[in-house]
Design goal:
alpha+beta; Jelly Rolls; four-stranded antiparallel sheet; globular; disordered N terminus; DIOX_N
């Protein structure tokens, strides 16, 4: 579907046309366009005020999980405090599972339109959602990306709700992520000076949402984004990315590339882990560049039980707070935090600011 570009285009009308097509960005790209529709073009002030890409040799840390535990904990602590991002190797997830997950996710997004559209929805309460731009009607510009969003726990999802083309591997991949996530939360607990089961005991590893992202090749990547600048509304994210690249992390007012490393998984601290760690660990903003080359496929596993009723309050842990280091944030529920995050969309303003306590 191609949307005509005009100087004074009716943005809402074009957004509705794009949404109602249920064809996603892939449908736009498949139309053989040479220019991207106006709804995807970033505002001029945003383009002009963008941060530069780092020209230094600064790299995201790569942590070998097969190393001595004390050394692994120390490396994770340094990375979580300084960068908020790191890559892990020797993580225990078989290469076959990683390769098949990427392949099957790509297969889903490349299904015939009539087969794929049955999963298209903007109902955020559904556990299986195929959509494009969860914040389509809130953002200043749409992102060049489609997503299959699957809530895989803590309650087991009926496999029959999942698309058949990726059903089996999604179930297997989620189980692998559950094991790896639990191991990472144990290591990060120790990095905070706590017992290894502390974060798991706070239900941080209780639930996973698996997001399969698809970024078609873009004819004008310099005008749009694959994913706008944001931080993640969860405790931890584990990302599997293919060979194309495009992920960037904001560090010291520069964008730092996160190049694909064969067999590695990218891990980043989420907003809620920064909140409960009282800023000891940082959830940093990141984005994905659009690209002439594509499609790019990535699989993000979010650890957050947001679709399940819970009155549990999350605030800075008392073990990490003191008179000299008072709580930085107020308490909140998972549902409140995610609802606020979704209500504002990817607007470039960290959601954590909304939950900060005023210092007297």
């Amino acid at each position: 579907m191609e949307v005509e570009q005009t100087p004074n285009f009716d943005r809402l009308q074009q957004l509705k046309a794009f949404d109602e097509s249920q064809a996603g960005v892939k449908g736009v790209a498949d139309a053989g366009i040479s220019r991207i529709p106006s709804i995807f073009v970033r505002p001029a002030d945003e383009l002009a005020g963008d941060y530069p890409v780092s020209e230094t040799n600064l790299q995201i840390p790569v942590v070998d999980l097969a190393g001595r535990r004390e050394e692994v904990v120390e490396k994770l602590k340094t990375a979580a405090r300084s960068m908020g991002f790191f890559q892990v190797v020797n993580h225990g997830v078989p290469a076959r599972v990683l390769e098949e997950m990427l392949s099957r996710a790509r297969d889903f997004h490349e299904l015939p339109h009539e087969e794929k559209r049955v999963y298209y929805t903007r109902q955020t309460s559904k556990k299986v959602q195929y959509t494009s731009n969860f914040d389509l009607y809130k953002s200043r510009s749409a992102n060049w990306r489609d997503t299959l969003f699957c809530v895989m726990g803590p309650e087991p999802l009926d496999p029959l709700q999942l698309p058949e083309v990726c059903r089996d591997i999604l179930m297997e991949y989620t189980e692998q992520m559950r094991k790896l996530g639990t191991a990472l939360f144990e290591l990060l607990s120790e990095a905070l000076g706590l017992k290894s089961d502390h974060l798991v005991g706070m239900d941080c590893a209780e639930a996973q949402a698996v997001l399969s992202h698809y970024y078609p090749a873009c004819p004008e990547p310099e005008l749009t984004m694959g994913t706008s600048k944001h931080s993640d509304p969860d405790f931890l994210t584990i990302l599997l990315q293919d060979h194309i690249g495009g992920l960037q992390v904001l560090h010291q007012n520069h964008w730092v590339n996160v190049p694909p490393v064969a067999g590695a998984l990218v891990v980043n601290v989420g907003d809620l882990l920064q909140l409960i760690s009282n800023d000891q660990f940082i959830s940093v903003e990141h984005r994905v560049r659009a690209n002439h080359v594509g499609p790019r496929v990535s699989i993000a596993c979010f650890f957050k039980p947001h679709l399940y009723p819970s009155t549990r309050l999350y605030g800075p842990m008392k073990e990490l707070s003191s008179e000299d280091n008072p709580p930085v944030y107020r308490e909140t529920t998972m549902q409140e935090f995610v609802a606020y995050y979704n209500s504002k969309g990817l607007d470039g303003v960290p959601a954590l600011l909304h939950f900060k306590l005023e210092r007297t």
